[in-house]
């Protein structure tokens, strides 16, 4: 299966990227294709009214869309900055269009250097899907103490071992959602012309 992993941190070599790399490795071991969209490396402009008309300015968005359309499932990795998802990730979700990500499953993964991480999940669940029609999985992952977690081949302690087991479980679920929702997309029922915007 083709999986797109979106890393929402603006920072290069971030904890979010480390978590994304761990998840990518888990998929690659099972011979799935992983496309990493690291927002610290992709220079997406902030949303503007010229998104439909300024071809040169938005060429990077076109490249992202060409990658996203091939994905059958997504993973969105967000750091927690001051209890919030970072602005570049919110901008990315604002720019995502239903034709490329609509009715595709997405696993939310939050990353905290401390013991937080719940607030970005809540934020994205409340506002990160309406018009792009991404389907978030019912459960999510929170990686806490990220400076010291998922850094070594083997888990550091029982807590990390349990976290790794939960990650594996959620990744297997995501694959099943990816297969199931492909049938929704190919059913002929989806109508983004008449019902493009969520209520």
Protein traits:
single chain; 199 residues; alpha/beta; Rossmann fold; 6-stranded parallel beta sheet; 6 helices; 6 strands; 38% helix
Notes on the structure:
The chain is α/β, with parallel strands linked by helices. It has a single domain (2-185), classed as Flavodoxin domain (Rossmann fold, 3-Layer(aba) Sandwich). Helix content is 38%, strand content 16%. The protein has helices spanning 15-29, 59-68, 87-95, 98-101, 118-127, 158-185, and strands spanning 2-7, 33-38, 73-79, 105-111, 135-136, 141-143. Strands 1, 2, 3, 4, 5 and 6 form a six-stranded parallel β-sheet that branches. Strand 4 (105-111), helix 5 (118-127) and strand 5 (135-136) form a beta-alpha-beta unit. The chain is globular, with a radius of gyration of 16 Å. The protein starts with a strand and ends in a 14-residue tail after the last helix. The mean pLDDT is 95.
Compose a concise summary of this entry.
This protein has about 200 residues and is α/β, with parallel strands linked by helices. Helix content is about 40%, strand content about 15%.
